[in-house]
Write a structure and sequence with these properties.
259 residues, alpha/beta, UDP N-Acetylglucosamine Acyltransferase, domain 1, five-stranded parallel sheet, 7 helices, 15 strands
Length: 259
């Protein structure tokens, strides 16, 4: 029991720069209190004490603002930061080293008793504030759920889900990107630079606009060159047609950027 508590305190001190001491974490972090009470409720449920299990979970909800069903399975070193409004359903499973922020719902969409109705979070998953993860699917190891995302389908390991409904952004395998991510360390609220697909689309449009500016500049240079050569020719001679006229506009590429 005390080893689990020490692990919980250590992970909070590691992930929350506002945590100053072990005593502060033990006395002032509702996420820790909710997990400790959930373990008692979960033990009661496993031993057939269903009413007592629900009573403990309701007591934890009253004291912390975090509602965890006694049937939920929670791994080691899980950090519920701030925690107000967090709801974890009966068949939810949370893997080791996960981080969950305030307002998160791990909910179900089915009404069949005994079925797997709530999501399973793999190891090291980060779920941003006010996110809704709804359904009996799996969020892969190391995945990130952006703040206010509504996730209704599986998320691959290492991917990021953002938006409503959530769009899946696969992990970049580029070596330089991985090195930059490693330097960034822990991603608070499941957000890192470059994850927003709208921002990526805008960057793509800006790149295209920059390319068009370059093409326009080249055309003006060609026109000036032709004008100068035309002035040098005797009257009635034809103007050489050696300007660049190849069109590089790719509409399909622009359409892919904004999908």
């Amino acid at each position: 029991m005390f080893s689990r508590l020490r692990e919980d305190v250590a992970c909070i001190l590691e992930r929350d720069p506002a945590a100053r001491s072990t005593w502060e974490v033990l006395t002032c972090y509702p996420g820790l209190h909710a997990l400790v009470l959930h373990r008692r409720a979960h033990w009661c449920r496993q031993h057939g004490l269903h009413w007592l299990a629900r009573f403990i979970s309701q007591l934890a909800r009253f004291l912390t603002g975090i509602e965890i069903h006694p049937g939920a399975t929670i791994g080691r070193r899980v950090f519920i930061d701030h925690g107000m409004g967090v709801v974890v359903g009966e068949t939810a499973e949370i893997g080791d080293d996960c981080t969950i922020y305030q307002g998160v719902t791990l909910g179900g969409t089915a009404l069949v008793k005994g079925a797997k109705r709530h999501p399973t979070l793999g190891r090291g998953v980060i779920v941003g504030a006010n996110s809704q993860v709804l359904g009996g699917f799996t969020v892969g190891d190391g995945a990130r759920i952006g703040s206010s995302a509504v996730v209704v389908k599986p998320v691959p390991p290492g991917a990021t889900a953002v938006g409503n409904p959530a769009r899946i952004i696969l992990a970049d395998v580029d070596v330089a990107r991985e090195a930059a991510a490693a330097k960034m360390g822990f991603s608070a609220y499941g957000v890192t630079l470059g994850d927003d697909p709208v921002s990526q689309a805008m960057k793509g449009l800006i790149d295209n606009a920059s390319g068009h500016e370059h093409q326009i500049a080249m055309l003006w240079q060609a026109i000036e060159k032709l004008s100068q050569r035309a002035r040098e020719l005797p009257a009635g001679d034809c103007v050489p047609q050696d300007a660049q006229t190849t069109e590089c506009f790719d509409a399909e590429r622009l359409n892919r950027l904004v999908k």
